[in-house]
Automatic annotation (TrEMBL):
UniProt-listed SUPFAM superfamilies: Macro domain-like (SSF52949)
UniProt-listed PANTHER family: GANGLIOSIDE INDUCED DIFFERENTIATION ASSOCIATED PROTEIN 2-RELATED (PTHR11106), MACRO DOMAIN-CONTAINING PROTEIN (PTHR11106:SF27)
Protein's name in the database: O-acetyl-ADP-ribose deacetylase (Regulator of RNase III)
Domain Macro: 1-167
Gene3D superfamilies named in the record: Leucine Aminopeptidase, subunit E, domain 1
The species this protein was found in: Longibaculum muris
CDD domains: Macro_OAADPr_deacetylase (cd02908)
Length: 167
């Protein structure tokens, strides 16, 4: 399984599934969540309303409607408090659950945003290490390519650095 770090807008990636950094309600929010809902269209919110929310560290899948991807996997990252509220385990669980669900749905190409490092304030370097390690340690079934799509230069530089160090 190939792991790549790219810079860009995840709503433009043509792949089997993109991951949404959602909140517990799954009813839309700001950041990447807002961008995904805007581009997918109102049908996405309609489907999300049937899911009954999502626990922190877990994930749920929907169709992707007007997005170029086939599915959206909505995961809920931890809000970073002080590092002593299971933040690391919960963030790892987000990546793990998304990878498992992508495999269950026979996805070959999965794209992640940088979960929890925006409004949820997870320190970027620590978050990038968890993301890269969890993806590297994952035993894939049919996933061939996992992409981490960074929205800004700084996030991109940190993920690149972590990837280089873990090679
Ligand atoms: P969280 O609440 O999990 O912290 P945010 O959406 O606030 O989620 O931020 C997570 C990351 O997603 C941040 O690095 C933010 O810059 C990035 N981001 C925002 N919009 C997009 C987008 N369209 N594509 C990819 N990443 C995005």
């Amino acid at each position: 399984m190939e792991i790549i770090i790219t810079k860009g807008d995840i709503t433009e990636i043509k792949c089997d599934a993109i991951v949404n950094a959602a909140n517990n309600s799954l009813l839309g929010g700001g950041g990447v969540d807002g961008a995904i809902h805007r581009k997918a269209g109102p049908e996405l919110l309609k489907e999300c309303r049937t899911l009954g929310g999502c626990a922190t560290g877990d994930a749920k899948i929907t169709k992707a409607y007007h997005l170029p991807a086939k599915y959206v996997i909505h995961t809920v990252g931890p809000v970073y408090r002080d590092g002593h509220h299971d933040e690391a385990q919960l963030l790892e669980s987000c990546y793990q659950r998304c990878l498992e669900i992508a495999d269950e749905y026979n996805c070959h190409h999965l794209a992640f945003p940088s979960i929890s490092t925006g409004a949820y304030r997870y320190p970027i370097l620590a978050a990038a290490k968890i993301a890269v390690l969890t993806i590297q340690n994952y035993q894939e079934k049919c996933l061939k390519k996992v992409e981490i799509v960074c929205f800004d230069d700084y996030t991109y530089s940190i993920y690149k650095k972590v990837m280089e160090e873990k090679k």
